[in-house]
Amino acid sequence: MLYIVTKFGFVYIYEISTCEQIFKIxxxxxxxxxxxxxxxxxxxxxxxxxxxxxxxLIDPAALxxxxxxxxxxxxxxxxxxxxxxxxxxxxxxxxxxxxQFNNFIIxxxxxxxxxxxxxxxxxxxxxxxxINKFKGLPQIxxxxxxxxxxxxxxxxxGKLNKL
Length: 163
Description:
single chain; about 160 residues; Serine Threonine Protein Phosphatase 5, Tetratricopeptide repeat; 2 domains; 3-stranded antiparallel β-sheet; 6 helices; 6 strands; elongated
C-alpha cells in the first residue's frame, strides 16, 4: 500500500500493484508539516503546524472486507483480493476461498481447487481435512491422482507445512 499525505491534511491510500485509490480521509484542517513512517507498526505519523501528532495504519483484518465492499471500481478485484490474502495471510475472505475451492471440486477441476488451496491464507485449506478430501476424490482418466495434484500445487507456491 502507498500512503500519500498532502499539505492540506488529506491521506490517500493506493494499492500499489493496480495504482488504484482504496481510501481517502482528511486527518487535519491545519497544514501538515511533516510525515514519517512509523517503524513500530508500519503505519504513518504526521505532524501539523500546530504540533498535533496524527498516527495511522491499515488494519489487516479490515483491509480485504473494505476492498470487497468499497472498491468495486478496481478491475480484477477478486484476483487482487486473492493475491493479497495469499501473499500476506490476511483474514476476511475465507468464505470466498472456500466457495471457489468447493466449486472447483464439484466440477472436477482438481488443479484449480489445489491452486486455490495453495493460495489460501494460513491453514484455511492447508490442513488435514483438505488432504483427506483429495485422498477421497476419484481419479480422472489421464490425470494424476488428486492428492498428487494438490501437493504439486503446494510445492509450486512454496514449502509444505507440517501436515
